[in-house]
Amino acid sequence: MMKCDSYLLDCRALAVKSYFLDGFQSKIITTHCIYYSKMSAIELLDTACIRSGFTKKGSKEAVRKLLNYVRKTPFLISQDVGSFPTCSSDSLECVWIFNHRFDVKELGQGLSLVTFKNGMSITVKASKHTLENQQRKLHTTLDI
């Protein structure tokens, strides 16, 4: 395990989720490795946005106004990196998925396996429909 910070939330980031073990609060899945952080997922996302010169809240508000995405709003971390929540961002079960292509296999009622193109995968509490819709929203956000 490796301690890390928000600098890992770049074009190689696949997902961030809550993770509570050995003093860690989040797990960062990237294209090349899995890292653990003592910062929460929200703190990591906020800090990554601030490095780009804006806040996560401001980025979400801009997307809401431009595209009228009111619930589970995706947001930009930088010009070419964005993320979306799998459920309410207030939930500890929320996984933040980044703008990489993925396939979804529904495992059961509201549970899906997300497999990224590099073979990394993560199980999330969200339906296939929700994940595919959120992915479309994020890519629309990145295109504007």
Count helical runs.
Answer: 3
What best-fitting shape do the alpha-carbon axes yield?
Answer: globular
Across the major sheet, the strand order is 3-2-1-6-5-4
Number of strands: 9
What this model shows, in words?
By secondary structure, the chain is α+β, with helices and mostly antiparallel strands. Helices cover 27% and strands 35% of the residues. It is built from 3 helices and 9 strands. It has helices at 41-51, 56-67, 128-143; strands at residues 13-21, 24-30, 34-37, 75-78, 81-85, 95-98, 102-108, 111-116, 121-124. Strands 3-2-1-6-5-4 form a 6-stranded antiparallel β-sheet, sandwiched between helices. A 3-stranded antiparallel β-sheet has the order 7-8-9, covered by helices on one side. Strand 7 (102-108) and strand 8 (111-116) form a beta hairpin. It is globular. The chain starts with 12 loop residues before the first strand and ends with a helix. 32% of the residues are buried.
Give a concise summary:
This protein is α+β, with helices and mostly antiparallel strands.
